[in-house]
Amino acid sequence: MFKSIEKQLEVIKRGIVDLVREEELVEKLRRSITTHKPLRIKLGLDPTAPDIHIGNAVPIHKLRHFQELGHTAILIIGDYTALVGDPTGVNKTRPQLTHKEIKENTKTYLNQLGKILNLEKTEIYYNSKWFSEMKFMDVISLAAKMTVARMLERDDFTKRYNSGVPISLHEFIYPLMQGYDSIMIRSDVEIGGTDQTFSLLVGRDLQRDKHMEPQVALTTPLLEGIDGNKKMSKSLGNYIGICDEPKEIFGKAMSIPDNLMRKYFELATDATLDEIDLYLSAHPREAKVNLGKAIIRRYHNEETTERVAKEFDRIFKERKLPDEVPQVTLSLEAGREQKLWLVKLLVLSGFAKTNGEARRLITQGGVSIDDNTLTDPSLEVEVKAGMLLKVGKRRFARITINNTS
Description:
The chain has a six-stranded mixed sheet, with helices on both faces. By secondary structure, the chain is an alpha/beta fold. α12 (about 245-255) crosses α16 (about 300-315). The chain has helices at about 5-10, 20-35, 55-70, 80-85, 100-115, 130, 135-145, 150, 155-160, 170-185, 195-210, 245-255, 260-270, 275-280, 285-300, 300-315, 340-350, 355-365; strands at about 20, 40-45, 70-75, 120-125, 190-195, 215-220, 325-335, 340, 365-370, 370-375, 380, 390, 395-405. The longest helix is centred in the middle third of the chain and has 17 residues, at about 170-185. The chain has three domains: about 5-220, Rossmann fold (3-Layer(aba) Sandwich), CATH 3.40.50.620; about 245-315, no CATH class; about 325-405, RNA-binding S4 domain (Structural Genomics Hypothetical 15.5 Kd Protein In mrcA-pckA Intergenic Region, Chain A).
């Protein structure tokens, strides 16, 4: 049923940072093989945003590795922990989400997770199932398991405390809630990013307190964004979404800094270590092409991957337009001069959500009409049917006009 301990460890340890403790995991694997009983592998996700990016996906893929090894993947959708807000890695209290916002975000999660996990073989729990039934005395009992001094061992809490930045009491509850999830589903291993180490260890403590065998804490690296500076984040715009259009994924991959290519190959693709060494031995541009294809291949089929790569060559190498340029129809009043504020044109065409975003695109030199770059956000442009609007390096639109009376 299961591979040998050595073979399993080879898969489990690829691309991770730490195991607390490895000898405990070895013992759990040995017992699992002997009893033919799969380990229970936990990953918790808070639906704080509607989309999952390839940085979020790193621990999800590690959960898939365990699943492929025959173990039980357990997904905790933190619809109650999301109400508190994970204090990890922030320098101030996170704004609290409403039940409605969390519910809306949750709708998109399972569809996206199905791109990575076999959901039919995944146990899925919402932690509202047990937290919504708790009485206040239960909360007090849970809070009594942790001291303030222990909480302040967290690096982010320590920095905020020493800087005089307020820490709300409800933030101390978060790691206790995450640890309590581990008790409820009796996890053998919990996966999380390195920024989750403290909460994973709290889970071990709470399980011991309940006379349970403590879970192994497995941490995965945090993936820097395509800007090469900060952690990948939707709010910073330096992300690649797993549901992005394939051509968008490929274009973003081409902007990944050279020094991060190995890390992206190891964490964001299914390429083997030998394949990665081979890819990185080539010219950096060719390596980046292979990286873009490997990321797309993880979420799409081979035909789509090759089509997007050829399209990229057509646009950038041969300086040609894509085979299919989207059309944008503008409704303009007949008989009047067909002029529009450039900022408004970008918003109406769907290239920017707000005037402010449109202004930034223009001033950064990323907007052109019929190959003429426009950098003045106050400009009014004559709108003609058939004109080609280009934003950035990868987004095009052919303008059509619907004259209204």
